[in-house]
From TrEMBL:
Pfam families: ATP-grasp_4, ATPgrasp_N, LAL_C2. Gene3D superfamilies: 3.40.50.20, ATP-grasp fold, B domain. SUPFAM superfamilies: Glutathione synthetase ATP-binding domain-like (SSF56059). Residues 1-34 form the signal peptide. This is ATP-grasp domain-containing protein. It comes from Lentzea kristufekii. Keywords: ATP-binding, Ligase, Nucleotide-binding, Signal. The lineage of its organism: Bacteria, Bacillati, Actinomycetota, Actinomycetes, Pseudonocardiales. Transmembrane segments: none annotated. Residues 110-299 form the ATP-grasp domain. It comes from the Bacteria.
Length: 394
């Protein structure tokens, strides 16, 4: 009797966790990477521009002819669109290309009638400081200026009033902002919704409370959310309807929501796992491995997840020391229940925190519940010393 044929996937611009999950599930993986050294879990690695869909198709199409792929996957923002386009051209099941395009373009997302009925937000593209000023005048209050395809809080600015439009526009350009969209400022608490979809059915796995700093950069996340049950159900209903409206079919999603005075509103959504170690927070608190589900669920190797109550609490808090050259680092001895990860060392120069990549490390904490995890993480964060001196001074 011949051995059963192992499932086969292509991973575009993948993460080590995705490759490891494929290996653990006995799935053959072809890894398309950008020329860097491929991880050891990649059985077959190909170096090609993994953000160029045509280049990816040219290397995967001959392999697909010999032995078809069951899925073309990615969990990185840069790889999602090429993976969807190549999968469609190969005739492989997965999320529709138009859905992935929609989620990567905040303008198109806001223009989708069904999504806009669920989450009405005043928004439109702007092309100049004068155009931004006109939008501010029409909005009648503060607005947000950001790139239509931006991530990691890069080049996101608050425009307090019409008279500030020119100054903010200049800051946006200097920060590398392109393809700008202006939206009315949404008041209220911000959080994210982690969900998973299978055959077009969506399950909300977790609501994640956010801690925001200056420039809208995320400084922390906590699960489970501390919101009252009724508000959580309101947010879940919005996100489930939104995922239906955009046509998401399978895999993880990360949807950012503002709980405004007019009700919950979707800020943006992505057909991937949230960054900032949210996958690890979810695993610790709920026991769901989102990466393993991404590989195993569409192939029938793991069942779709079911909503379960949190069994623990988990939190992450990021380090944002003062700008300057790092002169000294002191770590606390008591780190029970916490993991510290530093992204800087002595001699490194720290700048102003303008995006997620400017943070200097994190503390990841686990506790009996969210309050306990948050307390542990913040105590350890506050006990870490990253001393800086003005850049250029010994």
């Amino acid at each position: 009797m011949s051995a059963p044929v192992r499932p086969r996937i292509a991973i575009v611009a993948g993460t080590p966790q995705l490759l490891a999950a494929a290996a653990a599930l006995g799935v053959d993986a072809v890894f398309v990477h950008a020329g860097n050294e491929p991880p050891t879990d990649a059985g077959h690695a190909i170096a090609v521009s993994n953000v160029d869909a045509e280049a990816v198709f040219s290397v995967l199409a001959p392999l697909h002819t010999v032995r078809p792929f069951d899925r073309v996957l990615s969990l990185t923002e840069a790889g999602l669109l090429p993976a969807a386009e190549v999968g469609q051209r190969l005739g492989v099941d997965g999320n529709p290309l138009h859905t992935v395009r929609l989620l990567q373009d905040k303008r198109r997302m806001r223009e989708l009638p069904a999504a806009n009925e669920l989450s009405p937000v005043l928004a439109r593209p702007v092309s100049s400081a004068a155009d931004l000023a006109v939008f501010c005048r029409g909005a009648g209050g503060p607005v947000i200026l950001k790139p239509a395809a931006g991530t990691a809080s890069r080049a996101v600015f608050l425009v307090e009033a019409e008279q500030h439009a020119a100054t903010v526009w200049e800051e946006f350009v200097l920060a590398g902002g392109v393809d700008p969209i202006a939206e009315e400022f949404l008041d209220g608490q911000e959080l994210s919704v982690e969900a998973f979809s299978h055959d077009g059915e969506h399950v909300v796995i977790a609501l994640t409370d956010k801690l925001l700093g200056p420039n809208f950069v995320e400084l922390g996340h906590t699960v489970p959310s501390a919101l009252p049950a009724a508000r959580q159900e309101e947010i879940k209903a919005l996100v489930l309807g939104f995922l239906d409206a955009v046509g998401l079919r399978e895999g993880p999603s990360h949807t950012e929501v503002k709980l405004t005075s007019r009700g919950p509103r979707v800020i943006e959504s992505h057909n991937r796992i949230g960054g900032d170690k949210i996958r690890e927070l979810v695993r610790r608190a709920y026991g769901h491995d989102l990466v393993q589900l991404t590989v195993g669920c569409p192939l029938g190797l793991t069942p779709p997840p079911e909503p379960v109550p949190a069994r623990r609490g988990a939190a992450i808090r990021f380090l944002t020391p003062a700008s300057g050259t790092v002169a000294r680092i002191v770590l606390p001895r008591d780190t029970e229940g916490c993991v510290i990860d530093l992204a800087v060392g002595t001699g490194d120069v720290i700048g102003e925190v303008r995006s997620s990549g400017d943070r200097s490390g994190y503390v990841l904490a686990e506790g009996v519940d969210a309050e306990d995890a948050t307390g542990r993480g913040e105590r350890v964060r506050d006990a870490i010393t990253v001393e800086t001196v003005p850049a250029g001074r010994d």
